[in-house]
Amino acid sequence: MNKTTRNIVFIVCVLLQTMSFAQDVKKDTIIKDENSLNLTKPKKYILGGITVKGNNKFSEQSIKAYAGLEEGKELKIPGDQLSSAIKKLWESKLFNNIDVYALKIDGNTIYLEFDVEELSKINSVKIVGLKKSKAEDIEKETEFKKGEMLTENLITTTKNYIVKKYTDKGFLKTKVTIDYKKDTTTNNYDAIITVDKGERVKIKNLRFHGNLALKEPKLKKLLKKTKQKNLFHIFKPSKYREELYREDLKRLVKKYQEKGYRDAQVVKDSLSWNDDNTVNLDITLKEGNKYYFGDIKFLGNTVFTDEKLQEFLKLYKGDTYNGKLLTERVNGDGTPDSQDISTIYLNNGYMFSNVTAVETAVKNDTINIEIRIHEDDPAYVRRVRVIGNNKTNDHVVYRELRTKPGDLFSKEAIIRSIREISQMGFFDPEAVSPDVKPNYQ
């Protein structure tokens, strides 16, 4: 098979299957002219050599290295090895197009030709429609910069990022266009990003549906970052921000749950436009029933009596059900001085204890609770080390510690030690932190 009568075999599917922006994914196929050898069925060859065509910026050797095919090794065509080689070239993000041809077949030896179209780089970037400082922020925050490869994916992700950035700030009609023109001297592209933010969109009407337990004025107050236009509240922002609005909806549901409406949820919310470029927000709620605490039992406790644990729980039969408060009274509220059942165990050596609140029954509007406790054995402090004191002697720090080897483990003592060290004036209080390493054995 010589050059004048060579049979060109163009492998198509491998390319389209690996292109992230391919519009059509086709079946693994070899297209051939009517005089070519029949290579439609997989057959094993010895790879005699690879030539590269269309490369200007990257050497033939570099492209071969990216492909990862070795001359002299067995190669099945069509097959996974060639598919993988082309996929690697696509993943390098250096090419706009990759075609593979069978340049020559000599017995069971095949010679391939990779015809590539290299991507052009961004020669310059200009952002219009924004203040200089805002344009500079966009350049810092995105990958659309001078020297980067100009790809469809980069263009799309850059547009999406800018649109989201400004819609989150209330500019719901933000439009972004990216135009580019080839610089014939460098074969790269000069790009112009045009940003049209439009007017910031404000909320004209904030309406609730399905609410009976909480009236609309109360619900509006719960939406801390989502306010409707009001001439008497000029200092409260009424701009619509999607992200903050979603946070407000979660806060609204949590408030319902804290008031006993455990099953409350936002079943629907919608946005509609007005002629004056404002929007209406309609929020449909399903409150569900109001629940109360039923029987509350303690199981597994031998160290502390039910009465002692109840002093920390402070929840009683007939109280409005509050899942958040129940969790805080059982496992803490996240603060160092939290007064809860788990903490009382940790302060008295029971490092490996576990306290869990479980709903055991829901009858009508009443929920029964079990506080299940696994106490385990008390733990003792084996070793105490101080790390990071480069200027202060160890003994100066040790004498401030309330936790020493041989002591019963105490969360309270560790917290007190941190405070004592922080008040010495030698260390950054925020940098003083305990690293407790439990050893159950």
Describe the structure.
This protein is 26% helix and 27% strand. The chain has helices spanning 13-18, 60-67, 80-91, 132-141, 152-167, 216-222, 242-258, 306-313, 323-331, 341-346, 394-398, 411-422; strands spanning 9-11, 30-32, 43-53, 74-77, 95-106, 109-118, 122-128, 175-183, 188-196, 202-209, 265-273, 278-286, 292-299, 354-363, 366-374. A four-stranded mixed sheet has the order 4-3-6-5. The longest helix is centred in the middle third of the chain and has 17 residues, at 242-258. The radius of gyration is 34 Å and the shape is extended. 20% of the residues are buried.
Task: Going across the biggest sheet, name each strand in turn.
Answer: 4-3-6-5
Q: Tell me, rounded to a whole number, the average pLDDT.
A: 83
C-alpha end-to-end distance = 75 Å
Classify the secondary structure makeup into a structural class.
alpha/beta
Outline type: extended
**SSE run:** EHEEHEHEEEHHEEEHHEEEHHHEEHH
Largest sheet descriptor: 4 strands, mixed
Quaternary structure annotation: single chain
Q: Helix share of residues?
A: 25-40%
As a percent range, the share of strand residues is: 25-35%
User: How many strand elements?
Assistant: 15
The stretches of 5 or more residues where confidence is low (pLDDT under 50) are 1-37
Total number of helical segments? 12
Q: Radius of gyration, Cα only, in angstroms?
A: 34 Å
